Amino acid sequence: MEPHEVKEFTLKIKDKWDCVKLLLNCTRFIGINYADRSIAVPPKASISTLGEYLKLDILPVPRIYLYVGSNKYISIVFPFMFDTRMVTPKLWYRGICVTERIISGIMTLINSHKENSSIIGKTNSSLIELYLSNDEFDDLPDESYYLLGELLSLEMGYIRHDHDPANENGKIHPKIHFDVNYSQNATFKYGISKILSSQEFERIFDKNSDCYYLSL
């Protein structure tokens, strides 16, 4: 991942809209770079040598893994079917081919929502009704509205592994910790004693591997 691309994936996640935007940015990046096999991550490579990179793991549960150096790992679910049978991969969601035009339409709606603080806090259906009544969005594909509603209702399974010595505050804010969920009302931290490797982090989501245990 190039330095100018990293900022698209490291913006602070404050709400579901930010999380959907992160998912779509990752999806775009994977689709654009799929044909370049040289970006494949060596299975035994360390985070420190790889720097920033993005990984899509289809099995056993489709998830995106975003590694920002050795300081931050983020994982969310990947709700699309990734069809790689052709040179240019296609994305599908419940029978809909998710094109760049559809993704761009969703991004337009998300950016409008984030810029217009007066509509924050309304329900998803009310927001979509508002957009449909706004001439500014007349040219957006109908699928953009549908897919936005679907993604806003999706359980993202967000978790972040942080190595944050700058904000360390004893056991109140441990140097190394997990942030689970993203909103201020739902998030909680769990301190850990060491920085996990990428393999150890991904093992958390592997239903076929042994579980970690919490030490309370």
How would you describe this protein?
The chain is of the alpha+beta class and 216 residues long. Helix content is 31%, strand content 19%. The protein contains seven helices and nine strands, in the order αααββββββαααβββα. The chain has a six-stranded antiparallel sheet. It has a three-stranded antiparallel sheet with strand order 4-5-6, with no helix packed on it. A hairpin with a 5-residue loop joins β1 and β2 (63-68). It is globular, with a radius of gyration of 18 Å.
Briefly summarize what is shown.
The protein is of the alpha+beta class and 216 residues long. 31% of the residues lie in helices and 19% in strands. The termini are far apart.
Q: Looking across the biggest beta sheet, what order are the strands in?
A: 1-2-3-7-8-9
Order of helices and strands: HHHEEEEEEHHHEEEH
Helix content: 25-40%
**Unreliable segments (pLDDT under 50, ≥5 consecutive)?**
37-50
Q: How would a crystallographer describe the biggest sheet?
A: 6 strands, antiparallel
Give the termini separation: 38 Å
Nearest-angstrom radius of gyration?
A: 18 Å
Tell me the β content.
15-25%
Q: With helices defined by DSSP (H or I, 4 residues minimum), what is the helix count?
A: 7
Structural class: alpha+beta
Average pLDDT across residues?
78
Give the total of beta strands: 9
What spatial form do the alpha-carbon principal axes imply? Answer: globular
